[in-house]
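Researcher: Please translate sequence to structure tokens.
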Amino acid sequence: MLVESVRSDDEPAVGRAGLLGSTGIDVQTAELRRQRVEQGIADCSGLPTARSPAADGLPALQLPCLGGRGTVDLATLRGPAVLNVWAQSCAGCREEMPLFQRLHARAAGLTVLGVDYLDFQPERAIAFAGRVGVTYPSVADVDDELGPALRLTGLPTTLFVDAQGRLVAAEARTFTSYAELVGAVEEHLGVGG
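Model: Translation complete:
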């Protein structure tokens, strides 16, 4: 469920600390919100969620919307959904993000959500996403909460969540073609692109 942060614009929007401890990096400043809007990137409101966590779902992490307001409780996210774990410094991520944008634009009924992972320069992350034409929202994990919870082995990683909110697959690889990405979505979620 989308949970609005209760904070002033001067208080950083950070989650509980992962293995790195809290970085204190605020990914929701007024300037980052302005930049996100200017780039045409959606905020995280309107994501399909449920009131309670799914069995076998994503971990119960409250991650802040990158350049947005509020947080997303990953455990309550419902699909079908594809989460693309990325960083602007990751070459494979830069290669495949336009494919995820294409999927977002074409696949009716499928949610695409980015997870900007261990990216300590949120302004560069938003600028990069805008440069490659991404309009789907991203949450930010600057404190490495998701990595230990899911035992992430590298970037990019794609997570597949079914309609009941179950995490049905995770693939740590770079998708190099749209057909390859759509094939994975069809295999894991039964949804075409």
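Researcher: Any highlights?
Model: The chain has one domain: 23-189.
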